[in-house]
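Morning!

As promised:
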Amino acid sequence: MKIRQSMASRVFDTFNYVIMILLMIVMVYPLVYVFSASISDNALVSSGDVLIFPKGVTLIAYKQLVSNPDLWISYWNTIRYTIVHVILTLLVTSAMAYPLAKKWLPGRRIILMMAAFTLLFSGGMIPTFLVVQKLGMLNSIWAIVLPSLISTWYLFIMRTFFEALPEELEDAATIDGCSSLQVLLRIVLPLSMPVLATIGLFTAVNQWNAFFDALIYLNDRSMYPLQIMLRNILVAGTTIQAEGDLSLLQTMKYAIIMIATLPILCIYPFIQKYFVQGTMIGGIKG
Amino acid sequence: MVPQRNVMWYMLKKHRALYLLMLPGILYYIIFKYVPMYGVIIAFQDYSIGKGILGSKFVGLKHFIEFFYVNPDSWKLIRNTVMLNVYDLLFHFPAPIILAILFHELKNKTFKRIVQSISYMPHFLSTVVIAGILVTFLSPQTGIINFILVKMFGMEPILFLGLPNWFRTIYVSSEVWQKIGWGTILYLAAIAGIDPTLYEAAKMDGANRYQQMRHITFVGMVPVMIILFVLTLGHFMETGFQKILLLYNSMNYETSDVINTFVYRRGILDADFSFATAVGLFQSVIGLILVIAANRIARKYSETSLW
């Protein structure tokens, strides 16, 4: 059967496609510009001659940055913080979510409510800062990793996932003599790879992009993550260290955005699927 | 009869492995969530690090009174916080709803997938990168926005981040840019859950596409809209604080300085702990009241609520 399209309907479709193409341009253009400017001649960027395509292509801004030791220290710090954060978050969150998925466990509701209440109210920035300070964690990796170790949201996503696993498998393992810990490690976690990957990725991207905890808890240059370096150069306007050469300032700004963002830009098309799933599990269950 | 206490001990012993597994997590919540809640007491004290919470002098509402009656900026901070959030609600809340409907109406599945993937991209950029791009793009001497204004429209360059009346526009439009695509995910999930026979029935009844969008697609998204609205109100008063912290400067304080940035300056930079905690507490309490009220209203007028 041929479905007749009304005039208004066709106009709407055309209009919709035009909007979508405009949307794509708006989303992509800023980064295309940043990329083009980063490999263009500094003078041409500063005078506004670069609009879309690079002009006077040169990699000198990247060369200057790559030879800057501060950049590599901060890059390494970001990687370090991200790996430690992801591993600890997955361990502690799954260890807590697994018992919470057992509906018969006494005290489960109280603990769930204790966690949920933190979504509504918190002590705020200063009391949290004072706790971290009192624990002597300032200027250490622990100030970055521990205060944001568990996200209540991820805890609930993981609990929901565990609840949906077939209980017979765990019962069988228990009858075969597995302890709770063994059941978790050998049966539950291997079956939970999708949710572990999702939450691991969420945590990794968050930590890769985080700057605020580092801003308040770290004041030693050698501990700075990449985002603090970026902030100092792009926003606070500090000149790049060991680099009195102002003739490269503009292109170097764009180049450092690319260096800090490239890993995420390269992997996001592959990981967005997991993110979408995770967001939907979290969102629908509330 | 076994006394209650013994039952508890018995359960704890029987399931001790499970409770032990939860222990690190529970400790996390106590140390990093509940101890700071207890620490809020310092809002009512003249806290000094040396004396600690137990030794510091109790001063009642002194810091709150100072904030409301003495501090010259309190009204400006509250106004800016509320205004930025109201703008955020007005533009940033409906934008993904409209975009989700438009996505849903795309018939070419491959094209739809590509547009969606591209619309998610800004979500993966860091706040620092977004702020950095804004600062560089909006620069009056070397920013591309001003090049375009000057070269194509013959206008004078504008010092965007130095003018208070531009701040809200910059803030809200960049928020929409970054989050619109990602915000469609839950709405698209809601649309996917709509019974397709509803569309068939509507077509039989002669509904045109606009009517289908309005009465089926849109209505199908309402529960998600309510949940997200309640959640948004829960974070009302604290939206986008990190981005504001990166974008604001003494020239645009008039519209950019919000409660949280003030707490950061007074608390972290000036180490005025008690006063900053009091101001932060005021904000948290307003947030708590808003989310409870919104949830109650949602429960009263619809089937959906957060709890």
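Strands of chain B lie at 45-46, 57-58.

Hope this helps with the figure draft.
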